[in-house]
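pinging the channel bc i need a second pair of eyes. not urgent but kinda urgent?? the chain im working w is below, pasted from the shared doc
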Amino acid sequence: MVKRKITVEDLRRFKFVSDPQVSPDGERIAFVLSTIDYDRDAYERHIWMADKASGEVQQFTHGPGSDTYPRWAPDGSRLLFLSRGRDPEKKKPQLWVIPRSGGEARLAAEVEEGVSKPVWAPDSRRVLFLSKVWTEGKPETDVKVIKRIKYKLNGVGTFEGRRTHLFTARVGGRPRQLTEGEFDVEAAKWSPSGRSIAFTANMDEDADLSRVRDIFTISSKGGEPQKLTEGKHVITDLSWSPDGGLLAFIGHDKPKGLAINLDLWVMPSGGGEMRNLTEGFDRSLGMGVGSDLRVATPNPGAVWSHDGDSIYFLTASIPHANIYKVDLDGGAVEEVIGGRTIDGFSLSGDDSVIAFNAMDATHPAELWIKDREGERRVTHFNDRLLRRLKLSTPEHFTFRNSLGEEIDGWIMRPPDYREGERYPAVLEIHGGPRGVYGDAIYHEFHLLTAEGYVVLYTNPRGSAGYGEDYARTVMGHYGECDYEDLMAFMDEALRRFSFIDESRLGVTGGSYGGYMTNWIVSHTDRFRAAVTFRSICNWVSKFGCSDIGYMQPESIAGDPDYFEHMEKHLAKSPLRYAKNVKTPTLIIHSENDLRCPMEQAEQWFVALKLQGVPTELVRFPDENHELSRSGKPKHREERLRHMLRWFERWLK
């Protein structure tokens, strides 16, 4: 078979495996398969089922709905899932249940604002879930009255007057709201007895200004919540030990700190002394490796072994995201599955089977299992397409920054690379800044190489996957050591690889990577072209316009004298240095981006136009900060075409 180069249109041909959930007996694995319906400009998502013994894989749910979030009942008899569009009159995801043997799914619970994060009760008859509710009644007009500073979120929109609360329901019964008030419930789990529920929230009046979350318990029949913690921790997830005597949670005890590792803690389920089980691990739990060819899996958090003696978790350590476990008695963290970039996992009832999905730099995620017979891949949805494609395999190399630290980098050559020829090159910069580049596939990178570019990428200071000190270094110092590392990386690449044409260099990145792209072109002319995605150019205006701007370190979070520091924020804003820009710059931005708002792109565009810099602004309506990863398929393809067009114009 003659292989061909990858194209923009190949995006619609990839298939995406996510959210693997192994049955309690370890015999079957439910997972989500997402495909692109280009004509409808939409994603189709259904639950599929893999049989461990036979290896057979088949579609399990059908119909017009988008089916996600499969979860097995503890007795293994049924599977719950969320579905949007299964009933045309219900626009938001509702809770459905289907028998293990398949057949007709039936509606298990529905609420006006939709269902999220459902969890089976131990008795396999009840479910808890979260949903937004109107705390002061639904308004009769479309006028928005904003009372709290946290009223919008990228990908969600505005939710003024609504807070997320805890519900329970018997399958097919009427949901019952257990919590109420001006606070949000963020995670919730049943106790092993089913008589109580633990959840995380911040019920303080100034909760919007704090990262602190507390753990509460409440009777499964309702009543007054009991607070177990003392307002000293950031907490992102929690889970009960099998015997109900302990609670594990992921978080840290420095809520005012920046870029602090999330660790694994345990405490008595009635409250009391906490122990940090991963204090010496020096990785932030739950971090993943970036990719634009995935449908993300909900992080499983802290997963207890069946005997309660150890806890499993997932996180990134360059260049992979691995599954680890740590014993309850302490000791070293053990790598359970490594050498792959894993995006989600689950355990069978006796821990003998681990289902997970994994990818690498030339293969999107597929379903894998590990059991007593070893590790093996179960699905092969993308093999046929990949056999036809000529892809570049990244080459790893290292360089040393100004502190003498050894930093990872990668280079991708064009698939038709020839010795003796010189090629234009593009530097890619990840978001975050606590993003991670590693062994994961990027359609964007492969497209650039297919068009004859060398692609370069690295993890400068500020990135995750190395340790807390490495990530914290850049906090409050954007545009300093990160800029130094990126320039040192380019210097080393040019020294090592003579086939890079130094006169034809491009730079691109999104979010924080877009900020760094703007910063770079306002501080050096070494790049001949730039494409900046969902970027930041002005920290002063982002402070009040972004959904999280008032809480970000660049905005001196929690400092009552914020407005005394305007000069500092301006000093870190590329907009201040726009007069230095000479690099032709394409600005691509989503109009519904609430993380890096549209006004940032508009300011940067006007500033560059006034300086006479060749520039264009490409605006994507009805898209948010996630355009490149989960935007409408046709918009995702058009974004890539604009990028290729710009580099073609200025680097070829």
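so The chain has a mean pLDDT of 95. and The CA atoms of residues 399 and 492 lie 7 Å apart. — does that match what u expected or am i reading it wrong
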